[in-house]
Design a protein that fits this description.
elongated; five-stranded mixed beta sheet; six-stranded mixed beta sheet; 10 helices; Udp-n-acetylmuramoylalanyl-d-glutamate--2,6- Diaminopimelate Ligase, Chain: A, domain 1
Length: about 250
């Protein structure tokens, strides 16, 4: 039987948690421990009362999340945080969070997995944040309409397309999540089509001014890939079962 300490040691090394700087409230790594027994791993984009309740129903002992418990910063253990901690502690559910380390991982990372789902090959890293090149770009020869179709199939949902770039795409840039505000930096890389999750209002105007395609697949939808792939990796390595807990935010 796999133990929590074995899995956490592997995760910390595999994801380079100690090496990759992140926003302080990400608090990457083990956020809640349990008794040490792991028989089933759950994966979710966010931790919440709803997600933890589903984890308990599915007999999950270790919950992997992309956005952890402490994004709001220092706070009293009341209301939502109290409910979440109570659910986890009373049901022996450990919680492990990986934000930027999961985004940038070359195999199970959100960007790598989305690029693979789109059939992109020979990707290169670009756009530095916190000392890491967080995005992936690739040369390609595909029509804009075909890329949108592929993206919608991969995300199992609609894509918001701001079609201000070429109909025949040559260079795609991918940064999952909420990277739309980086559009000017992305354009500097000679990228004609930018794929991300969400963006502020002004980026639609920027896309038109820059003459690039901006494809928004949803923050949540573009970040389901990493936790799914990471859970599958652990399930195979440690011979445990895994389950994805789907709790979309609508963003």
């Amino acid at each position: 039987m796999a133990s929590l300490i074995q899995i956490v040691r592997h995760l910390d090394k595999y994801l380079r948690v100690g090496e990759i700087e992140d926003w302080p409230n990400a608090l990457n790594g083990l956020q809640i421990e349990n008794s040490g027994r792991i028989t089933k791993i759950g994966a979710a984009v966010d931790v919440s009362t709803r997600v933890l309740s589903e984890a308990v129903k599915k007999d999950v002992d270790l919950l992997l999340v992309h956005h952890g418990l402490f994004w709001s910063g220092l706070q009293p253990v009341t209301s939502a945080l109290y409910r979440q901690l109570k659910l986890a502690l009373e049901n022996d559910v450990a919680v492990y969070s990986a934000h930027l380390p999961l985004d940038v991982h070359p195999v199970v990372g959100n960007n790598a997995q989305l690029a693979a789902a789109l059939g992109l090959r020979s990707t290169t890293r670009f756009l530095e944040e916190k000392g890491q090149l967080i995005g992936l770009k690739a040369r390609t020869f595909i029509s804009r309409d075909e890329l949108v179709r592929k993206l919608e199939k991969s995300l199992d949902g609609k894509v918001k397309a701001f079609a201000f770039g070429p109909k025949k795409i040559k260079t795609i840039g991918i940064i999952t999540g909420g990277a739309g505000s980086e559009i000017y930096r992305v354009a500097e890389e000679k990228i004609d089509t930018f794929v991300t999750g969400e963006a502020p209002h002004w980026t639609a105007v920027a896309a038109e001014e820059l003459g690039i395609n901006l494809l928004l697949g949803g923050h949540y939808a573009t970040e389901t890939f990493g936790v799914k792939a990471l859970a599958a990796h652990l399930a195979m390595r440690f011979k445990v079962s895994c389950a994805f807990i789907h709790c979309p935010t609508g963003i």
